[in-house]
């Protein structure tokens, strides 16, 4: 009798645990789709570099195509290609050359909105940048503020480069679903 009731009790507490740990609720959320085009004003070297070397693997050179090289990034993001156009956000995060042959780079960037209706909202971009591709497609894995529960896709294209001032203009188009 006693062992049986213990077994019943164990089953019961297991059920209670299940209820506690697997509690869920159905919501009738409607996703909103937002498309946007933004321009990253990137200085990859020089006195006002927005991409700065952080670390590397000892013995490897510092370079975008050298495995392990890591950069801290804080690019101005504008609404149109012109550097002087409305500053809408900053692109802040980390680049790491992540393939042994140096071809691919792991990108971990937050788009931190600084004006307009999206001020204070963020989007998280994370994925593999195939550096030689003309159009890089990288996932949008999350967001905050106006972009809560965001997921989607972003493309990156280098529109022009001015080597003398270490400048690249990068166009980012994204499509995200969010609440
Ligand atoms: C966003 O862009 C996608 C892909 O280009 C398109 O299919 C969709 O209709 C656009 N959505 C809006 C809300 O403009
Ligand atoms: C760097 O920024 C400073 C201050 O904004 C500016 O005076 C200088 O011209 C810039 N240098 C380059 C090479 O862009
Ligand atoms: C952008 O602004 C700077 C200083 O504010 C100015 O020197 C430069 O000519 C402007 N560039 C363009 C393309 O308007
Ligand atoms: C964006 O939000 C910050 C913090 O709330 C505020 O200080 C700033 O003035 C806002 N900027 C614009 C352009 O609305
Ligand atoms: C990004 O959007 C612009 C228009 O805003 C369009 O001209 C360009 O083709 C798009 N790029 C990609 C890779 O879809």
Question: Your description of this structure?
Answer:
11% of the residues lie in helices and 50% in strands. Strand 7 and strand 8 (151-162) form a beta hairpin. The protein has one helix at residues 2-21; strands at residues 32-43, 51-55, 70-78, 87-97, 104-113, 122-130, 136-144, 151-162, 167-178. The protein has 179 residues and is mainly beta. The longest helix is centred in the first third of the chain and has 20 residues, at 2-21. The mean pLDDT is 90. The protein binds 2-acetamido-2-deoxy-beta-D-glucopyranose (NAG) (5 copies). One 2-acetamido-2-deoxy-beta-D-glucopyranose (NAG) binds next to strand 8 and strand 9.
What tags apply to this protein structure?
179 residues; mainly beta; AOC barrel-like; 2 domains; 8-stranded antiparallel beta barrel; 1 helix; 9 strands; 50% strand; globular; binds 2-acetamido-2-deoxy-beta-D-glucopyranose; Dirigent protein; Dirigent; apoplast; secreted
């Amino acid at each position: 009798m006693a062992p049986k009731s213990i077994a019943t009790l164990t089953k019961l507490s297991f059920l209670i645990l299940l209820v506690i740990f697997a509690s869920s609720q159905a919501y009738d959320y409607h996703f909103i789709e937002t498309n946007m085009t933004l321009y990253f004003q990137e200085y990859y070297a020089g006195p006002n570099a927005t991409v700065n070397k952080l670390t590397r693997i000892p013995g490897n050179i510092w370079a975008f195509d050298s495995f392990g090289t890591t950069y801290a990034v804080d690019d101005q993001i504008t609404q149109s290609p012109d550097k002087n156009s409305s500053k809408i956000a900053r692109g802040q995060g980390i680049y790491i050359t992540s393939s042994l042959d140096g071809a691919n780079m792991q990108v971990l960037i937050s788009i931190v909105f600084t004006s307009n209706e999206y001020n204070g909202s963020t989007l998280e971009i994370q994925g593999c940048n195939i550096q030689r591709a003309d159009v890089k497609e990288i996932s949008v894995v999350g967001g905050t503020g106006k972009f809560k529960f965001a997921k989607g896709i972003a493309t990156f294209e280098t529109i022009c480069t001015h080597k003398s001032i270490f400048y690249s203009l990068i166009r980012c188009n994204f499509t995200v679903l969010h609440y």
